[in-house]
Amino acid sequence: MRVAKLMAVGAIVMAGLGVGGVASADEPCTYGWICVYGNNDFNWKMVSRGGGYGVANIAAVYNDKMDSWRNTNATHDAAWYHNSSGTGTCRTMRRASSDNDISFTDSDKLSSWRTDVGC
Ligand SMILES: [Ca+2]
Ligand SMILES: [Ca+2]
Questions:
Q1: pTM, full prediction
Q2: Is the dihedral of CA 68, 56, 84, 89 positive or negative?
Q3: Chain-centroid distance, C-alpha 93
C-alpha cells in the first residue's frame, strides 16, 4: 500500500512538470539582479544575485548547467567561470544585457560567478 501511494504521488508530480516544465518559459529576472538559467531562452532560472558580490561557487545541483543569463543591473558588469572559485575560462555578463543562448563551447560549464565586475 505504501509503495502504491508513493507511485501515485510520483505520477502526479510528473504530470505537474509536464504542464509547464518542458515548454520554454521565459522566467523574468528581478530588476537590478543577475540571473543564470539552466536552459536556453531564460528557461529554468537556477540562481540570482544582486550586483556587487564577489566570486561564489554555484550549488552542486546547478553545476555545469547554465545556458542563458540576464544582467539587469545598470552599474555592475558580472562574470562567470568554467571552474570553481573564479578559475578557468572567464566570460563577462555586461550590465544591462543578456544572452539567451550562449556559445556551445560555454554551454553547461558554469561553476562559479561574481556580480561585482566583469572578467
Ligand atoms: Ca543546460
Ligand atoms: Ca564547470
A1: 0.80
A2: positive
A3: 13
CA 106 / ligand 2 centre spacing (Å): 9
Name all domains of the chain by residue range, CATH numbers in brackets: 26-114 (2.60.20.10)
Q: Can you say how many angstroms the Cα of residue 90 is from the centroid of all Cα atoms in its chain?
A: 16
Whole-number Å distance, alpha carbon 80 to ligand 1 midpoint, is 15
Closest CA to 48 of 66, 30, 67: 30
Mean pLDDT of 22-46: 92
In sequence order, what are the residues at sequence separation of 6 or more whose Cβ sits closer than 8 angstroms to the Cβ of residue 47?
A: 35, 36, 58, 59, 62
What pLDDT does residue 93 have?
98
- CA-derived radius of gyration, the chain: 16
> What type of residue sits at position 17?
L
Examine the pLDDT at 68 and tell me if it is beyond 90. yes
Closest ligand to 80 CA? 2
Distinct helix (H) and strand (E) counts, the chain? 1, 8
